[in-house]
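#struct-pred
JK: can someone run the complex with alpha-D-glucopyranose? inputs below
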Amino acid sequence: MEGSPPAPGDTLWWRDAVIYQVYVRSFADGDGDGTGDLAGVRARLPHLVELGVDALWFTPWYLSPLADGGYDVADYRTIDPAFGTLAEAEKLIAEARALGLRTIIDIVPNHVSDRHIWFRAALAAGPGRPERALFHFRAGRGEHGEVPPNDWVSEFGGPAWTRLDDGEWYLHLFAPEQPDLNWAHPSVRREHEEVLRFWFERGVAGVRIDSAALLAKDPALPDFTAGRDPHPYVDLDELHTIYRSWRAIADTYGAVFVGEVWLPDTERFVRYLRPDELHTAFNFSFLACPWDAGRMRAAIEATLAEHAPVGAPATWVLCNHDVTRTVTRYGREESGFDFAAKEFGTPTDHGLGTRRARAAALLSLALPGSVYLYQGEELGLPEAEIPLDRIEDPMHARSGGTDPGRDGCRVPLPWTADAPYSGFGSATEPWLPQPEFWPAYAADRQTADPGSMLTLYREALRLRRTVPGFGDGPMHWRESVPGVLSFARPGTGDGSGTGDGSGTGDGSGPEDDFGPGDGSGTELVCVVNFSAEPAPLPPYTEVLLTSGPLVAGRLPRDTAVWLRAAP
Ligand code: GLC
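RT: done, structure tokens with the ligand placed:
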């Protein structure tokens, strides 16, 4: 295992980092009890170093009843005993850092667990008491208060309100076990600022902000009326004040933020990325985009054009713990992602999906900005079908059983083909069952296979690290035949790189040029064939990497290539 600590002066690392999302519960089981844990992560750090990522984002590892996989936090300063201890988290952060891997943690400011000390105190205190002011408690409507205070719907389905025995209702935009905090209350703000400091003091380099656009609510809690502007709880202006104060804290530690901001309005989206707010936010329009040249090009162009004016780097995300795995999505007729369209039994061609996922890996790793990889993506894992009686995700039950839920992308990883439970580490069956075909995807088997997804990712990340021109910096489209995307990253070959950390241009260049090139040396060119026909390659001096074999010098369908070429 190589790996060495990041250079201390490298303050712009996040602009083009490859960040690996660890879903702790399903990454590796160190104590054999069926649940992944910090001991498992520590033992598998060599895998992440060999893969070649720069940072790790850990989904919530705090004390939690796991009503929503840990996004129901009972105490931010305690690690859930199923995962380990605070001392062990500190060790993990330090060990990872010594190997060159920075740590990003997940903060869930919109809500807490119903077991959080604040919510328990609010319940015990009763209606009208100040303890309830930390949440949104209200009397109901209707003659006996039997109608919820407003018509808001939970993101997981059903009403966003639950009634207590004392007659009051409380708001939860997610599950009833996740009461929403009242962000108009100063204690809520103060507590989160202290939580940030608590973790920055422990060496954390960044924070992923869960449901970042939902915290603030219209105090009148009005009914939701479609098209009403502003929305009563999405993207309210006061969020920017909150994130500016967070930014000031992060800056004193040199730490960074990535926001989970699902907003269709791109002008509103990039407001979160102004220089004194969040450093980055997940690019969900890229993730949700179907496998189609025109749609992909439009998503990429829109992303770069939006980010340019605020100087923030784009992020490229294909997958996470909430969405259908890439290999499965791209193997379906409807290859985009939409929460509302998920259903059981969708026909899937895994061979096709795998070819496309390989091409998509080269596409996303060649684009300017940072890249997120979700655990198992490097193994090309497909979405698993979970037996109905084993599904834990509240999305499934709250949909009335029609939504398959998100557990299919959260199955414990296969490490060793010939070991029990594919080497996940458990002595008993893991918390979610693994499909029978899991051993075929095991990391050890893929390490030995030059044609595997793991080999492709390792090689792509090695090149991205060592060949100048990748990561932050300019790109421009090159001419290509219909159904094929071709773009260049200029400035390779003279060793100067292109990223100066100052952003991706001022948008005033030619229409399809995102930032200034230096006009020297060779270009790094990425070509992706989305069409059914093999595509000719542009003139090149070297093939750096392909996602699948070239056929008679042509790029087959659903395949991508990285070339070195003259500008
Ligand atoms: C985010 C998380 C998701 C969680 C929800 C509520 O969307 O990614 O997993 O269920 O927030 O915290």
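RT: quick notes.
The first strand starts at residue 18 and ends at 22.
Residues 68, 71, 108, 174, 210-211, 260, 321-322 surround alpha-D-glucopyranose (CB under 6 Å).
JK: thanks, will look after standup
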